[in-house]
Amino acid sequence: MGRPLRADAERTVRAIVEAAEQVLSRDPGASMEQIGDAAGVARTTVHRRFTSRQALIDALAISAKQQLAEAVEESRPDTSPPLVALYRVTANVLKTKNAWKYTLGSHAEDTSAAADIWDQINARTLDLMSRAQREGLLDPSADLQWTRQVYYALMSEALQRPPGPDGVDTDTLAELVVDTLLYGAGKRTA
With contact defined as beta carbons under 8 Å apart, do 78 and 133 qualify? Predict the structure, then answer.
């Protein structure tokens, strides 16, 4: 493992990663020079921090998945009531996924570090669903692996909805996702 970066170098890396997400979401074929321009740094600085385009893509994947993991943890999934935690996790994840559309929408192979973070997210989501099942929010016979897969699909589909006049309202989308997960589209009885 290398030495930790100085604060200014860390800011530069963060600026490059954030710029890369924005630039690549508009133009997946954008050059390292275009990414550097958007980050306010020279192409040589981008190449000094990321030895290749793939190294930059890998850093994007790790950063995006780390932010997803933080979004889950910020929701306090272990201590909030399960329904509250599910709404909070959903809203936080939708906000993060909306900010990282290029990276999180990419079907590229993850590095082992990004894959490890994704495994942690999957485990935390399954833990929350297990807790929701134990506390009666989910049917006792529900297949939680399948439920998690459907939950992820609902979030992906929610982000495909055309934004309203004020942009993407992740709280409304979170409510839609959780309500659909818990109640489906069937007629509700009082």
Answer: no
**pLDDT tens-place string over residues 46-77:** 988 899 888 999 999 999 999 999 999 999 98
* Residue 161 near residue 142, CB atoms below 8 Å: no
From the CA atom positions of the chain, what is the Rg in Å?
19
Contact assessment for residue 119 and residue 66, using Cβ atoms and an 8 Å cutoff: no
The two tokens of residue 155 are 């979030």
- Using CA atoms, how far apart are residues 38 and 143, in angstroms rounded to an integer? 45
Domains, the chain, in order of start with CATH, read: 1-51 (1.10.10), 60-183 (1.10.357.10)
Token output for 49: 């921090």
Structure token digits, residue 138: 């989910």
Q: What predicted TM-score, i.e. pTM, was given to this entire model?
A: 0.83
Q: Which of 189, 181, 172 is nearest to 133 (CA)?
A: 181
